[in-house]
Amino acid sequence: xxxNSSPMNQRIEQDHQSREAFLQAILTCNTKQxxxxxxxxLKVLKEDSLNIFKRVPGNMLRSYKNFLLxxxxxxxxxxxxxxxxxxxxxxxxxxxxxxIEHTEQISKLDTIHxxxxxxxxxxxxxxxxxxxxxxxxxxxxYIETNFxxxxxxxxxxxxxxxxxxxxxxxxxxxxxxxxxxxxNQKRIKEAKELLIHSNLSMTDIAxxxxxxxxxxxxxxxxxxxxxxxxxxxxxxxxxxxE
Length: 242
What we know:
This protein has 242 residues and is mainly α. It is built from 12 helices and no strands.
């Protein structure tokens, strides 16, 4: 039986090989290869050589969303194989799934897609990529993995096998700030993405990033950003309309 070697089949085979190499680059955090394959995948999407935007007839947006949702899972799986903590991978996957579903413009989906790739391939959140981690490095990895959960410094210290006082002193000395402040900055960073790229309520966003009290979330957000979450979202929406 002869294998059909039509131009379309050859292109499909080529694109699938590129995707496998791309996923391997995410797995290994190979930033040089990542930059190359990001351009390649954007080219495939622009040319639509695989008819991705025609998968849902008459609805390019839904077709693109379906494509990104499936690739979100692929990127997440590759990153986990490459050492990304499962809990962290789950949060990132959920975050981007929400962003994808709440976006109504293809150009915004392009931005989300590139951000998603960069985050999954970020070596700074892969603990195994850090050589001889300091106490502060271990604490940051703990925060990255557990920031959406409530935990005491004593619990972190216990899990890291150090005394709480020593942990706090070492962190402040190396990073110039407190563990609580670092955690809040991480939470606010994630909240900003959701405020910009989703229609989730303030309460839902607060809970998703680790604040059980929406009022406290608003207070900390304003302290860090100078404006409330609502004002931040409104200002971003107004800038897009101008």
